[in-house]
Structure formats: C-alpha cells, structure tokens
Design a protein that fits this description.
By secondary structure, this protein is mainly alpha-helical. Helices cover 59% and strands 7% of the residues. The protein has eight helices and three strands; from the N terminus they run αβααββααααα. The chain has a three-stranded antiparallel β-sheet. Strand 2 and strand 3 form a beta hairpin. Helix 1 packs across helix 3, helix 1 packs across helix 4 and helix 2 packs across helix 3.
C-alpha cells in the first residue's frame, strides 16, 4: 500500500457516508454527529472533515459531482464516491476488522514507566482516570437506554466501547487496591536492587560497545 493511501478512520467514515448518497461537507459532518460516529473517530470540527475530503479527493477516492452557490453564501460542493473509493472503503474496512495494528497507545507507555513516579502519585493519577472512565461508562449506558431498540448491528461499536471501558475499570480498580494495600509498591532502594539484579541481561557479551 502506498503511504498516501494509508487508511484512516475518519476517511472511512466519509467514504461510507458517500456510499449512501452524494452530499456536501456540511451534511457529512452532520451525519457523523447525528449517528454518533464522532465517538469512534477523531472529528475535531468541520475543518477536519474538509481535510479528510481533500485527501480522499487527491487519492481519487471521491470526486466533485456538482458545485453551486446560493445567494451570497460560499460555494458548496457536492461530493460522490468513485469506484476506486468503493473498493478502498471495503479494503480498509476488512483490514480494520482483522489487523491488530502496530499502534502504541500512550496509556501503555505511561504504565510501562510507573516507577518514575511515587506509588502515591500513581494512585492519584489512576484514580482520576478511573473516575473519567466511570463517567464514560455512564454515558454509554445512557446511549444504550436511548437507542436500545435499534438492531444490535447498529450498536456494536458502543457495545464494544462499553465492554472495553468496563474491563479497564475492573483492571484499574484491582491495581488501585493493590497500591492502597501496598501489594504493589516501590522505592529507590528496591528499584536499585532490581536494576542490579538484572543488569547482566543488558551486558554486551561480545564487547561490541565502543
């Protein structure tokens, strides 16, 4: 795959919207918001939609179907998906469903360096994260209460998000409890002992270091 054809979540959302019918950028953005897709892709504002449209157009995945102006309003272009865009949307979707990806979430990076902070600091920050996740879980529960009558296929992304949030919350609660009881703890002396114990694993056995 060419670098310029690298798949994007927002790009796929725009392509799928245009699979339904040709439309202008404002309607695409409104459709994303109305269907809650801004909860699964990063839509900072309408500007990000225009950026995605510009990229998709340069790739030949969408094209301008018509362009017009009403009164003194800015010119409004109506976009349609191309045949290449249809094929690309299907390919991106298949890849997203099967590829576990090579992303490195920042939270995992932070977790891997917990010992830079004190146990008390870590407990404070993770407790704050847990509170945010609880609020998110409540929002997801509310979404299910509001749209619970929809066929399940239309709620799968919210279902998965709720499962992930609840799973992380359960994990966070267990870590917080271990931090509270000091089942998980560390200090400078202990860290020094661990570093010395495993130092041999990073020695240069062949003397290749300068």
């Amino acid at each position: 795959m060419k670098v310029t054809e690298r798949r994007s979540g927002l790009g796929l959302v725009v392509l799928v919207a245009l699979l339904e019918a040709p439309m202008h950028a404002y309607r695409i953005h409104a459709l994303i918001k109305a269907r809650g897709k801004d909860r699964v892709v990063n839509v900072r504002g309408r500007a990000s939609i225009y950026q995605a449209i510009d990229r998709l157009q340069r790739l030949g995945l969408i094209a301008v179907r018509e362009s017009g102006r009403v009164d003194n309003r800015p010119e409004r272009r109506v976009y349609e998906i191309t045949e290449q865009g249809r094929e690309t949307a299907r390919r991106w979707l298949k890849e997203m469903l099967t590829d576990t990806g090579n992303d490195f979430p920042e939270f995992l990076v932070g977790i891997s360096f917990l010992t830079v902070l004190t146990p008390e600091e870590v407990r404070h920050e993770l407790a704050a994260r847990a509170e945010r996740l609880r609020a998110e879980a409540e929002e997801l529960d509310a979404a299910f209460a509001q749209y619970g009558e929809l066929p399940r296929v239309f709620m799968l992304e919210e279902e998965l998000r709720r499962t992930i949030v609840r799973a992380e919350l359960g994990w966070l609660d267990s870590v917080l409890e271990d931090l509270r009881t000091e089942a998980i703890s560390w200090n400078d002396r202990w860290l020094g002992e661990i570093a010395a114990k495993y130092a041999h694993q990073i020695d240069d056995p062949e003397g290749t270091e300068a």
